[in-house]
Amino acid sequence: MPQQDCTSELESTLRERIMVLDGAMGTTIRTYGLSESQARGTRFANCEKDILNNGDILTLTNPEVIGDIHKRFFEAGSDIVETNNFSATTISQSEFFVDDPREYGGRKDPEFFQKIIEDPFLVDLAHEINFESVRLARHWADNIGSDTGIKRYVAGAIGPLTVSLTNSPDANDSGFRVITFDQTLHAYKQQVRSLIAGGADLLMVETIFDSLNAKAALVAIQDVFEEDEVKLPIIISAAVGRGGETMISAQTSEALWNAVAHVNPLAIGLNCSLGPDLMKPFLEELSQCATTHISCYPNAGLPNPLSPTGFDMSPEDMHRWLGDFASAGLLNLAGGCCGNTPEHVAAIARSVHGIAPRIVPTLAK
């Protein structure tokens, strides 16, 4: 059953302290050393494409691994964990289960994606991944919340998709798009409904590379809220490049805030793409203009294949940087993206403990 709207409850907690998000699901999954065969399980044993990199499918084939990761992040100090369904839309799952027409001289276009969003197998699969991912996270949120007396929350993750509404992939046809806004909206509405049905406490539109894709996700959320007479808190989080713009649509932090402020998100923030050292000036910019809470969960530095996690920064590094952000009055929610293990999150939790949260301008009046 859907959860009750916990916006007021979360706002109350965020006025009191900095809340802690989780870390990187993909990074932590890799530490379990699963093989392609283990990722497939018996259910997908005959899949024609490799699916080891389809981390979302592990919710169905290896729920004990995903559950253990949620448990470890909660034990590390996370107040909120994201569900393991970052790419659980018909559009993104098609990458693993449908032949790419470009391999046979064709192309991906709206006609192709219309079949994708209506494909019964993909529709059912996306629903199941979303629904079961929430239930799995919910189990550990409730168990550890009961054991510790500190309520834990489940954020339904809504990722950026594998297609762009902003840019054309055809250098000779700048007006061409592989998919339409309405098709993207349809896929996102399916995902949102499944997350709510599973029992998510809040929805997180995250790792925004393409602002128009994110707009479709937010319209989907608003449509579902209105049509189904339900409402949950929303967190919005963008991935920005070294210049501080979203990586496909090139919106600055301030422009992104102006584009999404009307949905009254619980928080807006930055994640992925950069380490905290490179992210800080853009977080400062966002903090100055946003009249809601600020979240931040950066990568553990830049990619480094020689590092055990694949990224440069250690837990101690993340402790230092996120603690600096908190002391500067920039944070209401803190966590880690790529490269951040439960050990990193434990260090982040220690770094922000006891530091007053950023004062939200609208709450200060």
How would you describe what is shown here?
- The protein has helices at residues 7-16, 25-30, 36-40, 58-61, 63-76, 90-97, 110-118, 120-148, 181-198, 211-228, 253-260, 276-289, 315-327, 342-352, 361-364; strands at residues 19-20, 80-82, 153-158, 202-208, 234-238, 267-271, 293-297, 333-334.
- It is an alpha/beta fold.
- The mean pLDDT is 95.
Overall geometry: globular
Total helical elements: 15
Q: Which class do the helix and strand fractions yield?
A: alpha/beta
Order of helices and strands: HEHHHHEHHHEHEHEHEHEHEHH
- Please give the radius of gyration in angstroms: 19 Å
Helix content: 40-55%
Mean pLDDT: 95
The oligomeric state is single chain
Q: Biggest β-sheet: count, sense, barrel? A: 8 strands, parallel
Kindly identify the CATH topology: TIM Barrel
CATH homology group: Homocysteine-binding-like domain
For the record, the CATH class is Alpha Beta
Arrangement of strands in the largest sheet = 1-8-7-6-5-4-3-2
